[in-house]
Amino acid sequence: MQEIFPGVFAKEKMLFTKNFAPGKRVYGERLLSESGVEYRQWDTFRSKLAAAIKNGLDTLPIKAGSKVLYLGAAEGTTLSHISDIIGEKGAAFGVDVSERVMRKFISICEERKNIVPILEDAAKPWAYGKYLEGTRINVLYQDVSQRDQAEIFLKNAEYFLPKGGWGLLAIKARSISQRKKAQDIFEEETAKLARLFIIRQVINLAPFEKDHTMVLCEKSG
Ligand SMILES: C[S@@+](CC[C@H](N)C(=O)[O-])C[C@H]1O[C@@H](n2cnc3c(N)ncnc32)[C@H](O)[C@@H]1O
Questions:
Q1: How confident is the model over 11-69, as pLDDT tens digits?
Q2: Is 122 in the pocket of ligand 1 (CB under 6 A)?
Q3: Between 182-193 and 149-160, two packed helices, what is the crossing angle to 10 degrees?
Q4: Number of domains present in the structure of the chain
Q5: Which atom of ligand 1 is closest in space to residue 72's alpha carbon?
Q6: What pLDDT does 145 receive?
């Protein structure tokens, strides 16, 4: 196992994190034990963050002890790996609007005490600010398939992310337009972020996800 970022490991071209809930799988992933430590394989076709790492993300702002606000938690696939990375001193708040995915997500949170599930609309940050009170968020992560993805991200950054905090935004071109070229959409959406962020890196997620990019950015204002 080679540690490529704190808490993220690579072996034979595959990615792994240390299992925070030993013996438990979240989405049928492979478990691997080495020198008494259990690792979970992190599937680049199931997680856009894993795809971004595989495609050359140069800074991973999520580390042991990080406080993460995650919009678009779904069933907790990516969040479970974030839970592995941040460990017991970290906290991740997972927001999703769908009651259907929340049921599975809550069962994951019961096994992982560093994740808090929040059933709310990410476009209304004022509705869930109360759950984050007293926590200084370091990283805002968003993966919601919505037309106004950039606006939702900016709104949450204004509410919760201090200056110098990091953002990771997965942009899904086809939620914004079926007609326009994906590259044009990525440029337009990334340009919107300049109001609050310095863009550090933009990573295309092909071949793992078609017409998606991950934007890594740092809050400047
Ligand atoms: C592509 S899935 C996220 C996958 C997840 N990030 C992962 O990697 O494990 C998008 C999720 O965004 C959620 N979503 C869409 N619009 C939302 C909104 N306005 N507020 C909160 N969640 C939303 C959907 O319910 C869905 O679960």
A1: 999 999 999 999 999 999 999 999 999 999 999 999 999 999 999 999 999 999 999 99
A2: yes
A3: 20
A4: 1
A5: 12
A6: 86
